[in-house]
């Protein structure tokens, strides 16, 4: 029996059983127990999403932690977890495609002025609106790893000029890839649509702020499906209010769920999504999670173990 401590958003029994059944398809001897149950003290592995980390830390038999999502910042937060414990993330082509669809949707809504037409419908106004010529549009993707590279390629296939930026240099066929601070500024200055898919690290925290928004061309569109902490929300609101940014589309926030009194809700040219751009899909992710549990059980380092020093 391979005991795995489990914690997800609502920590419901139903969700735990659902995941257990999915994982059993690939690893029949797996047993999920709630993170707060007594059995969790016997667990070798924990499967976690936004778990109370002090409880995780107190479980002495844990040999590795698996994120129930693509991001691991919820596990590395505040350096509570010992840095020698391997942390594994999900890398799932299905989720990368889901993210790509969401970014494409956001980009197309911007260039085709979807919401302007929906407003016109309310007043039965039948007239064309100014169309942005997509051949002149340059899209910057910040973060071009497992997810961003798929998004970049898909946007390119749709006929957009796409540029990518990442911490280290990457090569993606057909995409200009950049790294380093000066190239970050270059993309801010020259692109029209800015898509943040970066992992949250100390270097990317608050990376989109008044200074960097001001470096973007007037009328730019900002899209964030990275992490909320990468954006100074008040600065974004001000740049949207002044019209310097023509629109922003957000899926992530500094505090989630987004509090009702957060001013982002009220800013007309900011579109709010509740962190659903690329949700974890148990059907497609279970196989690799089961494999990771098996590896840990056998003393091996699973694929997609993150580099603790880099934070992703
Ligand atoms: C979602 O935000 C994830 O990390 O998978």
Structural overview:
By secondary structure, the protein is α/β, with parallel strands linked by helices. It has two domains: 2-92 and 280-297, NAD(P)-binding Rossmann-like Domain (Rossmann fold); 93-272, NAD(P)-binding Rossmann-like Domain (Rossmann fold), CATH 3.40.50.720. It is built from ten helices and twelve strands. It has helices spanning 13-24, 53-58, 73-76, 93-112, 114-122, 148-157, 181-190, 210-215, 233-241, 282-297, and strands spanning 2-7, 30-34, 45-48, 64-67, 87-88, 138-142, 161-166, 176-179, 193-196, 220-224, 245-250, 270-272. A seven-stranded parallel β-sheet has the order 8-7-6-9-10-11-12, sandwiched between helices. β10 (220-224), α9 (233-241) and β11 (245-250) form a beta-alpha-beta unit. The protein binds glyoxylic acid. Glyoxylic acid (GLV) binds next to loops.
């Amino acid at each position: 029996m391979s005991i795995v401590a489990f914690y997800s958003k609502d920590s419901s029994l139903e969700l735990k059983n659902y995941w257990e059944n999915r994982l059993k398809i690939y690893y029949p001897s797996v047993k999920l127990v709630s993170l707060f149950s007594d059995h969790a003290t016997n667990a070798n592995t924990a499967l976690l999403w936004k778990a109370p980390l002090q409880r995780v830390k107190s479980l002495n038999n844990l040999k590795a932690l698996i994120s129930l999502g693509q991001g691991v910042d919820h596990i590395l937060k505040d350096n509570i977890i010992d840095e020698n414990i391997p942390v594994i993330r999900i890398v799932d082509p299905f989720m990368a495609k889901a993210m790509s669809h969401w970014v494409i949707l956001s980009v197309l809504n911007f260039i085709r002025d979807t919401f302007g037409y929906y407003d016109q419908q309310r007043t039965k106004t039948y007239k064309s609106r100014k169309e942005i010529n997509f051949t002149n549009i340059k899209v910057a993707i910040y973060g071009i790893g497992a997810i961003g590279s798929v998004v970049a390629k898909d946007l390119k296939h749709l006929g957009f000029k796409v540029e990518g930026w990442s911490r280290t240099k990457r090569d993606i066929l057909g995409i200009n890839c950049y790294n380093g601070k000066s190239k970050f500024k270059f993309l801010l200055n020259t692109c029209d649509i800015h898509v943040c898919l970066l992992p949250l690290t100390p270097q990317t925290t608050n990376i989109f702020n008044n200074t960097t928004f001001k470096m973007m061309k007037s009328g730019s569109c900002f899209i964030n499906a990275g992490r909320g902490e990468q954006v100074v929300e008040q600065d974004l609101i001000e740049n949207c209010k002044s019209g310097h940014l023509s629109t922003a589309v957000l899926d992530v926030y500094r505090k989630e769920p987004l509090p009702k009194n957060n001013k982002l809700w009220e800013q007309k040219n900011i579109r709010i999504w509740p962190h659903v751009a690329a949700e974890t899909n148990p059907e497609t992710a279970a196989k690799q999670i089961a494999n990771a549990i098996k590896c840990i059980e056998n003393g091996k380092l699973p694929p997609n173990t993150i580099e603790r020093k880099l934070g992703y």
